[in-house]
Design goal:
The protein has four helices and seven strands.
């Protein structure tokens, strides 16, 4: 567990750093899904992804919760402010498996519940076994598996949609 972990809303001034952190986390687990035709193409694809992460952090700044400690940024998560969808959850590779993702996820779920939703929804790449195992441990179930076009990657990818009931259902 991380000492002095603090969760707070993101600032637009840190969008570049948040985008880099998200990209690094994505790159550490999912780089293999890129299908470059050359080393130059791979470098261009990776640079485009980094910029896309940074632009998202600028655009979604008000929906991002940041985890940090005394030394700096550790992770972040974002959700749709009008719906039950968690769009992003990223923890810096050096700080994974220390409870940061669980804290960020719990905060997203609380925000979604307070907005009047009784279920939390997210998607992840079907080959991202680490993420799927994490979400299952946190109470999520796979409700759909299929192929979607990723604008970010410019290709079709296999995804899973997962859901978690946020309230106890009376029987």
């Amino acid at each position: 567990m991380v000492q002095n972990l603090t969760l707070r809303r993101a600032s637009i001034a840190e969008a570049d750093k948040l985008g880099k952190l998200g990209f690094d986390a994505w790159d550490s687990s999912m780089r293999q899904i890129l299908d470059p035709t050359s080393a130059e193409q791979e470098a261009a694809d990776r640079e485009a992804l980094l910029v896309a992460f940074q632009l998202f952090c600028i655009e979604a700044c008000n929906s991002i919760t940041v985890a940090h400690d005394d030394k700096g940024l550790l992770g972040w998560a974002a959700h749709d402010p009008f719906g039950p969808y968690i769009s992003d959850l990223w923890v810096a590779p050096a700080h994974q498996r220390q409870g940061i993702g669980s804290r960020l996820l719990a905060t997203m779920e609380q925000d979604i519940f307070r907005a009047g939703h009784d279920v939390s929804v997210l998607e992840t790449h079907a080959e991202n076994g680490g993420a799927i195992r994490f979400y299952v441990r946190e109470g999520y179930s796979i409700v759909w598996r299929g192929v979607k076009f990723s604008r970010l990657l410019g290709q079709r990818i296999e995804k899973v949609r997962m859901e978690k009931q946020l309230v106890v259902v009376a029987r």
